[in-house]
Amino acid sequence: MRLFAGIDGGGTRTRALIVDGEGREIARGEAPGAVATAAHPEAAADAVTQAIGDAMEAAALELITRDASLDEIGLPLDGLWAGLAGAGSSEASRAVTEVLSGRRLAHRLTVGTDVRAAYEDAFPDDDGVLLIAGTGSIAWGTVDNGPPIQVGGWGQLLGDEGSGYWIGLRGLQHVMTVHDGRSPVGTMTAALTGACDVGEPDELVPWVNQAAKGDIAALAPLVISAAAAGDSAAEQIVSEAVDALSGLVQGVVSRRVAPDVGVRVVLWGGLIAADGPLAPRVSNALGQAGFEVVERAVDPTMGAARLALRG
After folding, report:
1. Please, what sign has the CA dihedral across residues 50, 55, 59, 61?
2. Which residue, of 57, 130, 207, 250, is most buried by count of CB atoms within 10 Å of its CB?
3. Domains 3-112 and 121-297 equal at CATH topology level
4. Which contiguous run of DSSP H or E holds residue 251?
5. Shortest CA distance to 114 belongs to which of 6, 218, 221, 190?
6. Can you tell me the distance from the alpha carbon of 275 to that of 266, in angstroms, rounded to the nearest whole number?
7. How far, in Å, CA of 12 to CA of 34, rounded?
């Protein structure tokens, strides 16, 4: 039986999907997360290998050399497409590809971005824009049957507008302006200092200096809840986030030959997917701007598997 595998890997977890030559699901597997980097490509390669091994074991396919070390494991996959966070860097992609090639996982191997894999599942047969907002943010789309266009996704220093990190950080910045007496007291100070387990706002300085990006992004729902409860400063932050996310989509569509033609948008990510706290507002903003928001669950592993099949 011909087998193909798709991978969706990020900092939290790495998921694998194995399909047959007709694209029918055989098994799924999971491993710890890893981000593709040029400095330490083995970590991402290990996660990919372990996720595929887990899927094979789930399918009761005795295809793993159990006593072999990771770099000796061989799985008879015809194709493997690994969508990994961090693989947008050509150096990281090449480094991970080189390490994975030594694992003898597949006859044909590609390392690409997790966003590309997600887009393939969101729009397998047509143009559209995939807007992602979770810890970070990015819009990815194709228009007029052209090459993929990326808008945003440039990281916490140069991008990620409207993301969970962006919202959480601005909430913390507002708390400090309240502490200074530059802004009126609202509900965010108590909510955010409590979530960060600090007694006073000035204790946020060492907290934020050691916090991971995800720690700051985890504060976004508190800011959004404060906005819903009537906190004017929180509402300002959320309103700007919605505008920023809508702007990412506009950035993709601005390159259309015929920008007045309707464009379908799929929302994905913890902030704006179907049950995300910003989903209604972002969907409404895009609708008012003339976009067609399509409610669709996105499975990046299936998108990656389709890419593996396509070769």
Report:
1. negative
2. 130
3. yes
4. helix 232-253
5. 6
6. 13
7. 7
Residue 67: pLDDT band with limits 50, 70, 90: very low
Q: Which tokens is 38 given?
A: 């040029």
Residue with tokens 């598997």: 305
Fold (CATH) for 3-112: Nucleotidyltransferase; domain 5 (3.30.420)
Is the domain spanning 121-297 CATH 3.60.20.10? The answer is no
pLDDT digits (tens, 9 = 90+) for 103-137: 888 889 999 998 999 999 998 877 889 999 988 89
DSSP 130-197: EEEESSSEEEEEE-TT---EEEE--HHHH--TTSHHHHHHHHHHHHHHHHHTSS---SHHHHHHHHTT
In this structure, the chain runs to a length of: 311
Domain boundaries, the chain: 3-112, 121-297
d(CA 42, CA 71): 10
3-state secondary structure of 43: helix
Given a cut of 60, is residue 75 above it in pLDDT? Answer: no
Report pLDDT digits (tens) over 194-221.
999 998 899 899 999 999 888 999 999 9
Taking only the tens place, the pLDDT of each residue in 139-178 is 998 866 678 889 998 887 888 899 999 999 999 999 999 9
